[in-house]
Amino acid sequence: MNRLSKRLALVAALLCSTLPAATVAQTAAAKATLAWDPAGYLHTSGVDMLVFSNWYDGLFADSKIGGIEIIQQGVRTATNGDVRLQATPGQWDPAAKYISRTVDQKTGVVVTTLEYPAYNWRYTVRVEPRGTAAAITVDLTQPVPAALVGKAGFNMEFLPSAYMHKSYMADGRPGTMPLHPADAMVRTPDRNPASGRADGIGAEPLPMASGTRLVLAPEDPARRVTLRSDGPPIALFDGRNQAQNGWFVARSLLPAGRTGRVLTWTVEANSVPGWLRAPVIAHSQLGYTPAACKLATVELDRADTRTGRLQLIRVGEDGSMTPVAVPAAKPWGNYLRYRYVQLDFSAVKQPGTYLLDYAGTRTATFRIADDIYDKAWHPTNDVYFPVAMDHMAVNEGYRVWHGPAHLDDAVQAPLNHEHIDLYRQGPTAPFKPGQHIAGLNVGGWFDAGDFDIRTQSQYQVIRQLVSARERWGLDRDTVSVNDARRQVEIHVPDGIPDMVQQVRHGTLQLVAQFDAVGYAINGIVEPDVAQYTHLGDAGSKTDRLVYDAKLKPGEERNGRSGIPDDRWAFTSKASALNYGSIAALAAASRVLKGYDNALATKARAIAERTWTQEQGHAPDLFSHGNTTGGPVVQEEFSAAVELLRTTRDKRYADRIMTLWPQIAPKFDDMAWTAAEAIPFMPAAYRAAMLPVVQAWQTQADTAARANPFGVPITTGGWAGSGTVMGYALNSYILHREFPEIVDGRGVQRGIDFMLGHHPASDISFVSAVGTVSKEVAYGNNRADFSYIAGGVVPGVLVIKPDYPENHEDWPFFWGENEYVIPEGSMWITLANAAREMAGPQVTSGAPNAD
């Protein structure tokens, strides 16, 4: 190469250099080191490493919350750092049992002891800060059991949405993180049931790359992670080859025949110097009525000491942006890992379009208008519930949501069988295991992002819809239901109120259970993992033909099939389910009257007959998971209230008074039901409620001061939208019945929370409601990274100890993003409660920090 060529090559190299500014700054700045933070994890600027702060859910071993986790520049990008028995573990693959954890807060060393009881094998995972990185070691006092050699390995999983479109390097060899899984698979002699494959030979993914040094996203300072192994190589797998909810997995097999320190990884999650999380302006995406309390809460990185002004801006039709005079935002204080400032702009009443701006961070537009809540419940009524209708074909314009589903329902579940989804069959059953139960293939809704009919959910929804229909006379008609053809058309009126048709659809399923079995059953659910994990068209889940064991697989004869794909009915008797169903049937009979008189009469008759039967014997207390009803006394109380409202029979009023002392301690769960009984009860009943209601308001005031959003925020493995809506609905009904005690402000706080005034983001948790709402959710269409209009998600999940999370880029976090039908009916009720409450009587209510 001549001199000119060399110079040109040098110039070209300089011109093509695109080292990011953050990386340049980092090379010139001293890197901060990992150290133990009083909050309870290893921390350095922009990076947190959680060490077994969270653990695998008791139901699903893999809920993507557990082991060693990394929060990098504000996003939890890695989880499940632990010894696992598969390269890409599925949702039901085994995970170790947590034994203990010790923390040396001075050195930051965390030692966790775990065990695989089935193999009588314990191990420890030790995490030690080493400068900007952490050394992760696996220590054994006994070798890897022979049965686990070649299976047991240390895994760490990385969120696909954080690394798609980025590169990696394995010992310097470059590669690209794929948008869609496309790596090779290897056939295995045995099928892994947890993989979701129903039959045929098994298959496991081969690694995309392998090396002792693995760098993910080297080009992105905010996501770069470096892993080094001092022994076995680190293999990189794509878990989405096995299941759509799989993650990228880094894995090293544990060596055989060794004890002591058998594996050491050094993990460094890059810290961007000076990084600060962008402000989040929490507010209602739907907007506010003129008289409403209007709060905007800015969520800030605690290290963000910059001063900013929160502005309210009015948007003109010509695009003009006019600042509106409002008071200065006030500091609220710290909550979880963030600090907050809050603006009360309740004095702004002029209708129009607005947005909020904080130091250059702007929200989407929202309205101030009298009719804010008028249509807020329509997507749930018009789309979400029709899409959830089981045993029907559902069409929306050019789109087929699903064909007629589960026409082959259902066969008796095996005895003494515990299902993967909290169902359990006891030692007895009214039918032989595997026997077809005729008549169950009508009515009901898919419970959640999966397709089971959970009876407890069915009767909760029926009662909620009945209450909304009766209280506000909801007569919207946008859905056509043809039972004879098993056909539903969305956006096509048929002359019958949609709310009545939905109540009827749920009632058909409950009545079918009593007709076919004699009582309310636990539910109907898929028989195996393969069907349970089905995504998309519910109509293709089964062949819609009743299974006949006499036929060969694939053979069909006389409307029967040799394919055992029929769902299972779990039929163990539980009085709680009977009482819960009684309540729904009694309530439904009132709404159905005049539309389907025969079904109304039958529902009421079943309710009264079953009440008499249950009152004649000791309760059947079979209980398992969340599929066998609530506490018996609460379900009985609900049944008595609804029967009283339907029949006006004094014996139900007497029973309500008898049960009240047992209900009072659980008033928060029963406030709505208890309050709805007041007009039908003697004055002594309301008087007995007074001290309990006063205590509720005191507790509500305490909850309002606990966080800047003024509502109870849960910290379990399932996020708390349901709890928030329950609080708001209690606030509504108790304000209606006890206005001298309950101020009703919780209604506004609760609906604002659902619509974007919450931690972690400002997104509405009701899909298609509000300017920016959940568009990537855990519905049965989750593999499409899509949504179902009107579906309500669980919302903000607090990853212990202090990280609020809700992903809009990865739908498979079911604890954050899964639609469930009771939350749908609660939303319809809450939106209408807020519509009723909107007015001058609720004009303030900004919660203050303690």
From TrEMBL:
InterPro entries named in the record: 6-hairpin_glycosidase_sf (IPR008928), 6hp_glycosidase-like_sf (IPR012341), Cellulase_Ig-like (IPR004197), Glyco_hydro_9 (IPR001701), Ig-like_fold (IPR013783), Ig_E-set (IPR014756)
Domain (Cellulase Ig-like): residue spans on this chain: 281-361
Signal peptide: 1-21
Source domain of life: Bacteria
One example GO MF annotation: hydrolase activity
Keyword vocabulary terms for this entry: Carbohydrate metabolism, Hydrolase, Polysaccharide degradation, Signal
Domain Glycoside hydrolase family: 401-775
Record has Transport as a keyword: no
Similarity comment: family membership: Belongs to the glycosyl hydrolase 9 (cellulase E) family.
Name of this chain's protein: Glycoside hydrolase family 9 protein
